Amino acid sequence: VFLFSLFLVGTASFHGAGVSASFTSFSTIHVTKNKDGAEALLNWKSTLNNHSRSLLSSWHDDNPCNFTGVACDDFGAISHLNLSYLGLRGTLDGLDFSRLTSVVSFELANNSIYGFIPSSIEIGRLTSLIELHLPLNNLSGSIPSSIGNLTSLSVLNLFQNRLSGSIPSEMGSLANLTRLDLGYNKFFGSLPSEFNKLTRLTYLQLHNNDLEGEVPKDVCLGRSLQNFSILNNHFTGPIPTSLKNCSTLIRLRLDKNQLTGDITDAFGIYPHLNYMDLSHNHLRGELSWKWERCHNLMSLRISNNNIFGEIPVIFGRMAQLQLLDLSSNNLSGEIPREMGNLSMLLELDLSNNAIMGNVPIEIGFLSHLTHLNLASNNLSGLIPMQLGSCKSLLSLNLSRNKFQRSIPPEIGNTQFLGILDLSYNILSEHIPGELAILKNLEILNISHNSLFGYIPHAFDDMLALTSIDVSYNDLEGPLPNVKAFNEAPFEAIQHNKGLCGNVVGLPNCNSIRIKKRLGARITIILIISLLGFLFLSCALIVVVIINHRQRRIIKRKNNERANDLDFMSILRYDGKVFYDRIIEATEGFDSKNYVGEGAYGIVYKAEISEGQTFAIKQTLSSQEDTEIVDLVSFEREIQALTNIRHRNIVKFYGFCSHPQRCFLVYEYMERGSLRTTLKDDQRAIEFQWDKRISVVRGVADALSYMHHECSPPLIHRDLTSNNILLDRDYEAHVSDFGTARLLKPDSSKWTAIAGTIGYIAPELAYSIVPTEKCDVYSFGVIALETIMGKHPGDHVSQECSSSAQAESTMLKDVLDQRLSPSRLGLRDAQDVILITKLAFKCLQDDPRLRPTMGQVSRELCFQVPLDMPLSAVSLEQLHKIK
């Protein structure tokens, strides 16, 4: 027993000595590593600038565990470096990573570190590195391929540097990577296919770079991805197929790329998704019912694509939705009344679509709504007064629709409203004084309507206003005495009936009041004089009887003289005064004010003293070889034409007649006619496809209005590219009504064929009774001329179009080559194909086969996707498309 005990004691002593020796050796290793780490950090500190070194004043001995930003593990080895937000300036070149092998986390965010990422940052040296954070610095160059050796890395954050080059394929070796942020750099090229191997990624940010190519289809192969953003790159191709079943998604941003394909069934059901942005791509298809199954979705943006169809009714069940942006697509139908159930909605943008019908009154239930934009649609009817219940509104834009009647005074209840745009509608009646309650209103645009009366005096208290536009209405009276009106440019108040104020171009209100008071005094004097005359009239009656015959002769002569100087009031000016101003402004119709010439008159530019500019058409009259005009009928037509109000018809103010001259007064268009624009190469290049498409639509809308909304219908009769005028924004305005007549359907008062060769319908060769279908034919010619850049010539004939030569003619070859048709975007290409198809329909020889302008106008509002690219479309195929 004694010997056995002695053996145990000896054995224990032997093992204890061994453990002690091993621990001593282990400690020695860590002490050595710490000294190496301290020396590496001190050497790097010496390479930083003076200010940075002062921030690291605690770095001075060989124990790094006491250094600022340094943490050690239980064994005293450096495990964490966190030097973020210290304002350090320098490079990483002086840091020897080979002496920091125990570091688990390296954080250097938001400093001024510049230069390259050293290639020495790899597994052979940083064996334990799990997190590498270098965001918000000035690092440049490319990511070293050696970074792929950091196989333990879980987090890599290089956000917002100046890194460039392609993303190395070696990053596909980082199998443990869960978070990768390369956003806000200058990376280019395509993503390596090895990205499909990163199956553990939950957070992938590639936004704001110059990356291109297709997004790897298996980006969510591991079904772990939660936050994915490729915003603002140049990616092309379809939506990655793996995203459809990526049910873990919480936030997805694919916006501002060039992605294509049909999204109708490209996405699945995401129970955790709260943010989705697909805006500014080339996606097509219809809105999916599956969005309603994403119960946590708070923000959905799909603007600026080619989405068509109607807004699904089930969108009204997306209870958590706070932002819905479907603007700039091809959506049609009506706004579902179920949208009023979205009680959490803050922003709704459906602008720039083809949505029609009334705005549902249920929108007024959206008490939290801050931004509502329904601009540039085909909405009509009344602006619902229930919008006044949206008391949180900050911005309301209903411009460029067909809203009628009055502005609802209930809008004054939206006390926080800062922007109100109701321009380009058909609103009439007075401006409600309740709008003055909007003390926070900064921007007000009610231009291009038919509002009349005075601007409410209460507007004097709207001190927050910074920008106003009340132009193109029938307003009168003084402008409100507030900075926004007093400093408004004349363009923002022009084309009204009688506004006055301290704005250049407007008359002074005081002078108007003086004239009114003077007129009242004169009236009193006249009344007194009249009473005196009554007392004297008995004494003078004998003289009156004696001279009665002589006075009748004098009166007849005076009437004849007055008829010779018969002026019509224009813009509420005295006819004679306005006539004199026109003569003065045109310097007697001097050639230097010449603008152009049509078949029925010469056009001059006249800028009167009030600052308004008119187009004056001097008609061909008072000449021996011209037909005598029936002035009574002519004046009746003029009165009717002055009442026409449409955004795409040149506003007609009236006329002045004189034995020497007779001229018509029109709104002046800055860019002249469509024909002169197309003939000038430089102007034609500025006249891009989207503007040309808009011009065709505008002409169609104007003719539809003339044919279907005027009673009796108005036929233009001489529609050419010479009387399609363009304003500064290239919006089309149909002009030259000097040749048009108001015509009832059963009327046939024409005495001669009228029109311009190349634009007149073929049936006028054997019939002198024009119909609306003659204008339809002329529209077809103008539509082709607009997209071809010149008169279409033989292409207006179907017989020619069906010839062997035309069968092989491709559409891209007849388009205006000055605009490089091959570069047409998908949406513009579809519009051009649609316009060409409709133009050929309008050019049918048989007028019964031509569509009405109402049908053409409506069809131009919709964009039907075609299965073939522009380069593959021939003129023959367009004749066959129904």
From TrEMBL:
* Localisation per UniProt entry: Cell membrane; Membrane
- The membrane spanning regions, by residue number, are 518-546
Does the record bear Kinase in its keywords? yes
Check the record and name the InterPro entries matching this protein: Kinase-like_dom_sf, Leu-rich_rpt, Leu-rich_rpt_typical-subtyp, LRR_dom_sf, LRR_N_plant-typ, LRR_R13L4/SHOC2-like, Plant_RL_S/T_kinase, Prot_kinase_dom
Which keywords fit this entry according to its UniProt record? ATP-binding, Glycoprotein, Kinase, Leucine-rich repeat, Membrane, Nucleotide-binding, Phosphoprotein, Receptor, Repeat, Serine/threonine-protein kinase, Signal, Transferase, Transmembrane, Transmembrane helix
Highest taxon listed in the record's lineage: Eukaryota
Which Gene3D superfamilies does the record associate with it? Phosphorylase Kinase, domain 1, Ribonuclease Inhibitor, Transferase(Phosphotransferase) domain 1
Quote one Gene Ontology molecular function term. protein kinase activity
Per UniProt, residues of the Protein kinase domain are 589-862
Its protein name is: non-specific serine/threonine protein kinase
